[in-house]
Design goal:
Blueprint lengths: L1 H6 L14 E2 H9 L9 H9 L6 E3 L3 E4 L20 E5 L4 H7 L9 E4 L2 H8 L7 E5 L1 H6 L5 E3 L3 E4 L7 E2 L12 H7 L16 H29 L6
Antiparallel strand pairs: 1-3, 2-3, 4-6, 5-8, 6-9, 7-8
Length: 238
């Protein structure tokens, strides 16, 4: 925890917000990736903090930070950098169509987070989606067109926004065909057929007929039961 929160959050793809906080869930996912640390839960983190006698950590309901950090927080007045030609960003599969249309927007920490390390991009994206999409950001071209980039740590780059024209990725998956007209309108109800759930039949007349048939069957069964009861009773001779 000290190493992540005080020294190198960037190695884990984590970027603190402007007050130095990192989400507890994000921290936990990063810890769980480490060898023999998959068992760690939020309760373990909170238990560690109970014995935090030097007060180096501060925790809110959902965030945590170290007040002894030895890295600089991102400041919008800091020097811009010229990024590598290509950066990588992992995203949830379901957000891909929107991003291709509208570009990448800032996350909860106020920045678009990218990295020159593709493996790190994959690792951090898998915390949100087991089968993420990895985008290639044409960062060099974007910088030449006025997009600002900031360096955080050794391999993490931040920006306020990445327009769609500087983003490339795999082709959009083909749309799945609509459920064949609700499975051909429930396989088209054949005349004279019996529907298990009659109340769902769109045909009002047929629904009434089925209801009558069910009531007749119930009446027949009741009649049979009465007859069986009468037969089974012993005759009285008095």
């Amino acid at each position: 925890m000290r190493y992540i929160l005080e020294t190198r959050p960037d190695e884990f793809g984590l970027v603190p917000d402007k007050e130095g906080y990192i989400g507890l869930k994000e921290l936990l996912k990063a810890i769980n990736e480490e060898p023999n640390m998959a068992y760690v839960r939020e309760s373990h983190i909170r238990e560690v903090l109970l014995y935090n006698r030097d007060g180096s950590f501060e925790i809110t309901e959902k965030k945590i930070r170290s007040i002894k950090r030895n890295f600089a927080l991102i400041d919008k007045d800091q020097d811009r950098v010229h990024p590598p030609k290509t950066l990588y960003k992992g995203i949830k599969r379901k957000t891909y169509p929107f991003i291709l249309k509208s570009g990448l927007l800032p996350g909860s920490n106020g920045h678009v987070v990218m990295t020159k390390d593709k493996d790190l991009a994959i690792r951090t994206a898998q915390r949100l989606d087991q089968k993420p999409i990895i985008l290639e950001i044409k960062a060099g071209v974007a910088a030449e067109n006025g997009i600002s980039f900031f360096l955080f740590g050794d391999s993490v780059y931040l920006s306020d926004k990445i327009p769609a024209q500087f983003i490339s990725g795999p082709p959009l998956p083909k749309e799945l065909p609509a459920k064949k007209e609700t499975v051909d309108k429930e396989r088209e109800i054949i005349s004279g057929s019996f529907i298990l759930q009659a109340e769902r039949d769109p045909d009002l007349k047929r629904r009434k007929n089925v209801k009558k048939r069910i009531e007749r069957k119930k009446g027949t069964k009741k009649g049979r039961k009465r007859a069986e009861i009468r037969i089974s009773r012993p005759h009285s001779f008095f």
